[in-house]
Amino acid sequence: MNFTRFFQITAALALLATLGTWAATGAHRGWTQNQIPVTVHDEITGIEALHYQPGFVAGVDFLAGGIAAATALAAAAGFASRRSARRAATA
Fold first, then answer.
1. Could you identify which of 4, 63, 70, 73 might form a hypothetical disulfide with 15, taking C-beta atoms 3.0 to 4.6 angstroms apart as the criterion?
2. Which of 14, 3, 1, 8 is nearest to 68 (CA)?
3. Buried b (16+ CB within 10 A) or exposed e, 74-88
4. 3-state secondary structure of 56
């Protein structure tokens, strides 16, 4: 397997993993959260309180970072194919 194909496959897998993680954690359109807010209702006083539980919700910053990484890998595939085409032309 040459570098061009390797970078193309890696870019596709990185994009799919990013989109899958973002969708699986709720497709949150805000920033990434590492604590999930949960509203708790006290039955005795009737007061609602906001508590935070540990968890992970991927946001748009996670999505943008993953897409940027996949784009960089795809660009590397383009440069690798251009380089191998030059080598083939000169050989």
1. 70
2. 14
3. bebbeebbeeeeeee
4. strand
Give CA angle at 16 (14, 58), nearest 5°: 85
pLDDT per residue over 59-85, tens digit each?
999 999 999 999 999 998 888 776 666
> Residue 12: which of 77, 89, 80, 60 has the closest Cα?
77
For residue 58, the tally of other CB atoms under 10 A from its CB is: 23
CA-closest candidate to residue 53, choices 68, 35, 69, 40: 35
Q: Which of 23-27, 53-57, 84-88 has the lowest mean pLDDT?
A: 84-88
